[in-house]
Amino acid sequence: MMITIIAVAVGIVLAVALFKLMWRVAEPNEALIISGMRAYKDPNDAVAESLGFKIVTGKGVLVPPGVQTVRRMSLDLRAAQLGIECVTQQGIPVGVRGVVIFKVGDDYASIANAARRFLDQQDKMDTRVHNVFAGHLRAIVGQLTVEDLIRDREKLTQLTRASSGTEMEKLGLIVDSLQVQEIDDPTGYIRNLGRPHVATVAAQARIAEAEADREATEQEQIALALKAEANRNSSIKQSGFQAEVDEAAARATQAGPLAEATAHQQVVVEQTKVAQLAAELEEQRLQVSVRKPADARAYEQTTLARATRDAQISSAEAAARQMELAAAADATRVRTEADARAQQVRVLASAEAASTRAIGDADAHAKRAVGSAEGDAMRARGLAEAEAIKARADALAVNQDAVIGQQLAEQWPAIVEAAAKPFGAVDQLIVLNGAAGLGEVLTQALSQGAAGLQLARSLLSGGTPGATPAASTTPTAPGTPANGAPANGTSRPADR
Questions:
Q1: Mean of the per-residue pLDDT values for the chain?
Q2: Which residues pair with 175 in a beta bridge?
Q3: Which one of 188, 327, 343, 347 is at 20 to 30 Å from 155 when CA atoms are compared?
Q4: pLDDT tens digits for 379-425?
Q5: Do residues 32 and 61 touch, judged by C-beta distance below 8 A?
């Protein structure tokens, strides 16, 4: 019996040990991948059948040794550090530093996909994820500018997660977080972009610092001034209090002498009052006996002098007023006379000017009439002379000899007078051959005039002065015979 009991107990212990050996429990952060005979229970479960292995999460499972194999797949979070050199749309090389937080999905499909790819290479899962994100990051950064990378990192993160989501799903992984931590700038492009803003911010900071320093200095100076004023007021009050204390002390010290002096002062005051009363008494006596009579006499004399002065002033004012009236009357009379004379002068001047202007106009009119008449006469005379000259020229052109003869006949008396003029200067003429000789002299004189007439005719006819026309005839004076003897045969010199 005892053996039987021991055998049962050993059997129970062995059974428990065997059960403990075959029982596997999946932790909350892991999945059990069971493969081997009858790894899936339900033949109608197509998904489990397609997997070919069993996935157990969050519970225990009995795994018979030798026919089934169990392996654990970690469902913990993983972090893959990203350090990727990229080139932007502008051709500027940049380095993107970030981190991807991922894990194996909790659903069976994700666990199965991860198990197929990483069950024996779970330590290489980070490298695979890094490679996936590196390719997508390079492609996305190549479509963006540096400014986009700086100012909109969220866009870069969303595009990267969206483009890599499908591949991560195939790998059975899900991305919990993707953070772009840093963007390296080996060329200094980003630093140069920020330098103007940095300079502006630095300038604003310096200005703000200077303003703050100025305000602080002003406040310090105000505080120092208030402090000095407070010190001064305190010192003044202390000095006042000290003066009051000293005065009180001095007054207490001089209380005895001051009381004695006060009593003496009261005695002096009373004596002064007595003296003043005596002086007032004497003054009243003098007022009655001396000043009142003197004032009366002075008032009398002053009144008399003032009356005399007023009388003299009134007399002088009357005389001055009389003189002013006389002067005003004289001035009025003189001004009236001057005005009258001025008016007379103006009337006379106006009349004389009008007379002069009328005489001038008449004289000018007469001169214009005389000039006009003289001009008409000269014009008429000129026209007559011009017509005479024209007629003479026409006559000369037609009958030159007749015209010249007419001219000689008209001028003959003057010619004879001119020829006889030399004889007028002869004081004594002696004629030897009597009347015949006198006739010869006259004939010669007339022949000179005839020669001049001949010369003038030659010139008018265009001939030579020395040539003698063939048909010329010697002119003879009217009433003179052809031989040149005077008609009467007498002469004044012959008579002498």
A1: 82
A2: 102
A3: 188
A4: 998 899 888 888 878 877 777 777 777 777 777 778 777 767 766 76
A5: yes
* Residue among 129, 128, 152 at smallest CA distance from 140: 152
Q: Edge-to-edge strand order for the sheet containing 54-57? A: 54-57, 30-36, 68-74
Using the Cα atoms of residue 405, residue 409, residue 414 and residue 419 in order, give the sign of their dihedral.
Answer: positive
Q: Would you say how long the chain is, in residues?
A: 496
Determine if residue 434 is left, alpha or beta; phi over 0 gives left, psi from -120 to 50 gives alpha, anything else beta: left
Give the strand pairing for 30-36 and 54-57.
antiparallel
Strand partners, 23: 62
Q: How far apart are CA 296 and CA 96, in angstroms?
A: 131
Pairing assessment for the beta strands 93-104 and 173-184 based on DSSP bridges: antiparallel
Residues 275 and 271: their CA atoms lie apart, in Å, by: 6
- The CA distances from residue 348 to 338, 345, 356, 361, in Å, are 15, 5, 12, 19
Beta strands in 147-198 (DSSP E): 173-184
Secondary structure of residue 172 in the 3-state scheme: coil
CA atoms within 13 A on the CB side of 494: 17
Contact assessment for residue 62 and residue 118, using Cβ atoms and an 8 Å cutoff: no
Task: Pinpoint the alpha helices (H) of 171-288.
Answer: 189-253, 255-286
pLDDT of residue 41: 56
Which long-range contacts (C-beta less than 8 Å, at least 24 apart) are formed by 232-238? none
Residues 427-477 pLDDT 10s: 666 666 666 666 676 677 667 666 666 666 666 555 444 444 443 444 444
Nearest to 178 by CA among 106, 85, 96: 96
pTM: 0.40
3-class DSSP assignment, residue 64: coil
C-alpha distances out from residue 410 to 65, 207, 319, 479, Å: 197, 132, 105, 14
